[in-house]
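Model the whole thing, not chain by chain.
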Amino acid sequence: MDHVVEVQNLTKIYNKLVAVDHINFEVKKGEIFGFLGPNGAGKTTTVRMLTGIIKPIEGHAIILGHDIQKEPLKAKQNIGVVPETSNAYVDLSAWQNMMLMAELYGIPKKEAEARAEDLLRRLSLYQRKNSKVKGFSKGMKQRLILCMALINDPVLVFLDEPTSGLDVQSSRMIREILLEFPKEGKTIFLTTHNMDEASHLCDRVAIINHGKIAAIDRPATLKNTIKKLNSIEISFDSTIKAENLSKIPHIIEIRKEGDKFIISTDDVDDLIHSLTDFAESQKLKIISLNTMAPSLEEVFVKLTGEV
Amino acid sequence: MTFQFLDQLKRSLGIMKKDIRIYYLKGPVVISGFLMPLFLFLAFFIGSRNLSIEFLISGLIGMTVFFTATAVSPIIAPWEAQVQTLERLISCPISITTLIFGDMLASFIFGILIAILPIAIGLAMGTHITNPIILILGLLLGGVCFSSFGLILSSPPSNAPSNIMMISSLVRFSLVFISGIFIPLENMPYWGKIIASFSPLTYFTDLTRYTLQGTNYYPVLLDFILLLGFSALFFILAVKLHQRTIYKRL
């Protein structure tokens, strides 16, 4: 089985509003798949359909070889879910929450206890295992929810905004755990707003907007497809005006930042040559010159603006 | 198939334990489950000097089991939807039937355990249990029946527990007054008897009266058959209704 998630024409409509519109994609085994999109784009609705929390009105989602609608129990048995709007039971202790999850996944008690201890230790919660979740910080709660999602040692983990609004320590801890998953043979389906996170963690990303998939590819490939967003950062040994540069060909936009110019271009190579010619003709020394590829955030803004 | 059934049954015990820890082992639940029927009992005890203590105690047992078994089950689903733990449960590999069965089990255990209090009061006031086996069987069946009934009350897809409590109180109090608890069935007018026959509480109270007073309006076997029928009907209905409405809560 090469694909752990296969989505065909998945559609959801809420009160005549098309939240997800006939989307199609696959997630390969062992990859970290990022699902990006602005608020209301259909990210959470998609994850909820893939995890059997809500039902689509059309289309299919095959999770680990099982149709989530027709065989929900088999499909859910080997997945872990960290929902966006979920909570642990605050009146139970961290340990009781873990044991509850183990019982719901049918894990034998001894095995469950060993796994729970290991997970709580890995996410620095073991010392507080007998404390009620009521007294936990947001970061601790989110780490516990991740532990709960991993109690069944899932093959595929769905995480909906797992680091949203968390403190730096908790976010880092969660990211470090996520990076270990592919080594353990796990696949991750990650929904995030954080472009840096997606760029650093994901093998492939899908960008969704208005319920439709705008692009799916590797982050680096996506960045390269938006060539016109390439730019050059340059600084000279003496002050010049931006207008002096504007006659140089292939310049789309010039922005001054301190003593540097950020120049957007559709042809990096030609612009570098033109800039060195310009410096020579004006008897200027180039202090620094850097080429800058577009960030995933710029790709995201570009694509979601165009859909 | 059998393995899957047993496996899901085992998982429903997890739901049951969670419910007992979170919802039932709380002072206010114990107090409201027992005190409300006790106050109603005292009011009628003071005002109805011509009714035997056995009749009143059997009514108190009926009310206590009914009120306790239906006290918490109606609010579990809306409450869990509101505090965002329901989504966590739905994402687990358990069926809606497993979820409802677990909720029903917690309510059932609590409902029959609390019956010890009115039985103890009855014994302290000099009543005798003439047929304890019938009483135990009746309690078990009544517990299942009322717990399932409570879960029907929680099926409207409202995530505000107060809304469900309002509907629930309206239905529960109405049933108490038509089920032969305060007025013996034989003293009711014909139309009253017809209405009472639609309430499962009528048959449970009739059974407890038989075990304490030795008198009953319906044959004991009929009480059992109807309680069993109501239990099956309520449980199936609760599962079907929740299957339809639970996704609207998310």
